[in-house]
Amino acid sequence: MTTATRDLTAQDLFQRSLTAHLPLPQFERLRRTTVLVAGLGGGSNIAELLARKGIGRFIVADPDVYEPHNIRQRGSLVSTQGRGKVEVMVERLRDVNPGVEVTPVPEGITFDNVAELVRQADYVVDMVDFHGLREKVALSRAARAQGKVVLTAPSIVNGGLLYVFRPDGVTFEEFFEYEEGLPMAEIGPRFLRRLIPRFPSDAPREMYLAAARGERTLPLDAVGVEQASVLLVAALENLVLGRPERVVFVPKGVLVDASDPVFLAAVVDYTADFPSQRR
After folding, report:
1. SS3 of 203, please?
2. pLDDT for 209-228, tens place per residue?
3. How does strand 252-256 pair with strand 159-165?
4. How many CA atoms lie within 13 Å of 94's alpha carbon, on the beta-carbon side?
5. In whole angstroms, what is the distance from residue 212 CA to residue 137 CA?
6. DSSP per residue, 174-191
7. How far is CA 194 from CA 134, 154, 163, 176, 180, in A?
């Protein structure tokens, strides 16, 4: 790292924002915010975009290493194959902004560490893979118990979907109809009801059902991961800056697919399934 790089200031890096839509006091709120990014698949794209937006403190958790099929993820390069995702993203976030603080959690989210990691964060980004479903539930429960908002943004081939859970709203378990002890063959299709509100023509329902049964992997694409990242980062910025009226909360979500000229964006609304949440 050169002397010039070490001496970079927020003004140097974020001048285009600071001189326009993001006055310094608001930027400082972003800089002082700590975000727990749990899962560095699509979470790596989210973490990097948050760093480029001005978020100053991160906790990044994932036990996996980069493999060739991770090409849609920001940290996935030929030079990073076989390296831990956390190790790579710590380097990458600091390379984006040398001023960020990053706490690495290479063991990922566990039942032993989840409560403490949530305690350290202002906001929780849940991008844990669905094969870690029990850990996802533990993360959601810990956040709810501590009054923290959870944001999650799965991708759907070339599209992205955003769900934001209030700590006093519909729970993760209620929304996805999760029940302890059920086999994945039963849980998977329940999750698909919320995860795929609209099946793309090039990835029909049966393809996702096969993935839910463990017979194949989920169809994913870099374009969808990027769109999901943009949805989440925009919502998190609104929350940090005190603009919750701009955020769509569960039991509603936001679906975007810029690859489809017939279907670009929509609010998906499941309020009818949760009468107590009607406002």
Report:
1. coil
2. 787 777 777 777 788 889 99
3. antiparallel
4. 14
5. 17
6. HHHT--TT--HHHHHHHH
7. 18, 11, 10, 7, 18
